Amino acid sequence: MGVVGELVTNLLDNPYFGAGAGLFGVGVGAALLRRTATISKLIFQRNFLVTLEVPCQDKSFPWLMQWITRNATKAQHLEVQTFYEQRDSGKIETKFDFVPSEGIHYMVYLGRLIKIERTRGQTADITNYGKPWESIKLTTWGMDKNNIFFPMLEEAKSDALANYEGKTVMYIPRGHEWIEFGQPRKRRSLSSVILKRGLGEGLFADVQEFIDSPCWYSDRGVPYRRGYLLYGPPGCGKTSFITAIAGQLEYSICALNLSERGLTDDRLNHLMNVAPSQSIILLEDVDAAFMSREESEKSQLAYDGLNRLTFSGLLNMLDGVASSEARILFMTTNYIERLDPALIRPGRVDVKQYIGHAEDDQVIRAFRKFYPDSPENLAMEFCTVLRESLKQPVSVALLQGYFLLHKHSPEDALKNVDDIKNKVK
What we know:
Elements: H1 3-13, H2 15-48, E1 49-55, H3 60-71, E2 78-86, E3 92-100, E4 103-109, E5 112-124, E6 132-141, H4 149-162, E7 167-168, E8 170-174, E9 177-180, E10 185-186, H5 199-211, H6 214-219, E11 225-231, H7 238-249, E12 252-256, H8 265-273, E13 279-283, H9 293-300, H10 311-319, E14 327-333, E15 351-354, H11 360-370, H12 376-389, H13 396-405, H14 410-415, H15 420-424
Parallel strand pairs: 8-12, 11-14, 11-15, 12-13, 13-14
Antiparallel strand pairs: 1-6, 2-3, 4-5, 5-6, 7-10, 8-9
Helix pairs in contact: 3-4, 8-10, 11-12, 11-13
């Protein structure tokens, strides 16, 4: 045996070296096993599993949460979710849902086992309106994601939209997005708004014609958007009529207050471009935000250094280069004379409609609507007595408020008509 062989033999016979070599070998072997397991797991996941992650900012997140709540019936770790539901009668009831809480849950869908992992951040996130950021991750066997996740999302969407059937959804802006406001309201019919005869039908026909004519606009290079201004005294049905149009079209309403603090030109333009599809944009009391160009510029001096909507920003939103397409926008005002002509010129406001105080025909129709079983001549008599007693115009809203005081007796409504004088003072 040579010198080298003898040295190796002596090292192997050394108990300290032998123990160290053994521990080293065990460590190397364990590291190789861990590495092999990690690589095998990655290969398995990439070839045999499919995962879908839905963040809370995605529109389908609340739909999917509701769907999981109904279908993951064996989930043991739950959290309560309180919400309110409005009946057709108008009564609001408090209801509770038990939602799978943060953690891992399992369910079977279309014969396949699905792992549901709900994760949530520990701190509030400004992009999630002050709530903790969260997401849902779904994992299952196979690679055919279209055959498992697509039908799941379609089913979740259909179930969610079914809750809005026959109702009008209201949206308001929060940050740079639109959120649902309050409970969906029962759709209001056009006949429920008592306007001057033919006025409501004419406006609705114009809106419907616009919706049905996208190709006409495209062929002629005209921006596909339409603006309406309803003006007149308060309480005469401007907002009610817009709500009725939305109900008739099965559209939602996006209500925006131009005087909202923190509303800037960029934010306004962004909100117009991300409004929910099939919705009406509503700008109420637009005169309260900008009375005229000169007064707007003067008032702007008081806001130097603050983010605030400018008059030019509003005009650019209506028909600027970046203004949104396929848009129906309604503005209302009680004082059209306060509006700058630039705001309501053609192209920004296509239709201007005055909605005024109740005419005789409206008074008679309102009476018959509240008292359908009363004799027809009683409604005409009420109108005559009202005009003789009250020497000034009256709004439909004021009439409805008066009828509610005598909702069970048309005779009392006729007999006490002088009480309306006290309401208009």
